[in-house]
Amino acid sequence: KHNTNCTQKKFIREETVEAEVLNTLESFKIVNTRLLEWVRKALKEIHKDESQYHEDIVKELDDKYLKIKKRLDVIYDDKVDGLISKEQYELKRDQYEEELNSILDAKEKHAGANISYHRLAINIFELAQKGKEIYQEMKLQQDRRELLNFVFSNLKIKDGKVAPTLQNGFGLVAARAQGGDWLRS
């Protein structure tokens, strides 16, 4: 007999947890081929919009960069022509160089964000369609753990069953895949 204050947790076999996780991964799959094509088309449209957005931002940053670079050239000429003092030149030069570096940093961050966005969208789509198979093909526990960490923010055991908390859009994917309603916003 257990003490009434006992907080002993119930044991659940790893195979049971894994089977439930695999069922959850399988539940994301879109089985309706028309719907699957619609999702693919939507992803391509979103990609096109996202790409255009990033192109516009990068062009704007490039324009700013050229404008500041020209200013840097002008103050150099002004210094050589004796129109501004050495102190004025150095002050402006430092300011412009800082702005140029800031623009380069912003471009780099934007490029990274664009790549991350594409990877995330592809990973979510790929995992929604083949998550169970991908998990089963992984031999290393570390790889499996990374996949689970990408899909689930938390895996709890509640009443002897796995109660997952989904992340990275998988909650929405699961709800839409189970209900078949992908057109809702």
Overall description:
This protein has 185 residues and is mainly alpha-helical. The protein has one domain (14-179). 73% of the residues lie in helices and 7% in strands. The protein has helices spanning 14-27, 33-80, 86-137, 141-151, 170-179, and strands spanning 152-158, 161-166. It has a two-stranded antiparallel ribbon with strand order 1-2. Strand 1 (152-158) and strand 2 form a beta hairpin. Helix 1 (14-27) crosses helix 3 (86-137) and helix 2 packs antiparallel against helix 3 (86-137). It comes from Candidatus Roizmanbacteria bacterium GW2011_GWB1_40_7. This is Resolvase.
User: Helices and strands, in N-to-C order?
Assistant: HHHHEEH
Task: Please state the average pLDDT score.
Answer: 82
Note the main sheet.
Answer: 2 strands, antiparallel
Helix count, DSSP H or I runs of 4 or more residues: 5
Shape: elongated
Ends apart, CA distance between termini: 53 Å
Q: What would you call the structural class?
A: mainly alpha
Helix content: over 70%
Order of neighbouring strands in the sheet with most strands: 1-2
User: Got a strand count?
Assistant: 2
Low-confidence stretches: none
Domain count: the total is 1
- Give the percentage of residues in beta strands: 5-15%
Give me the Rg, rounded.
Answer: 27 Å
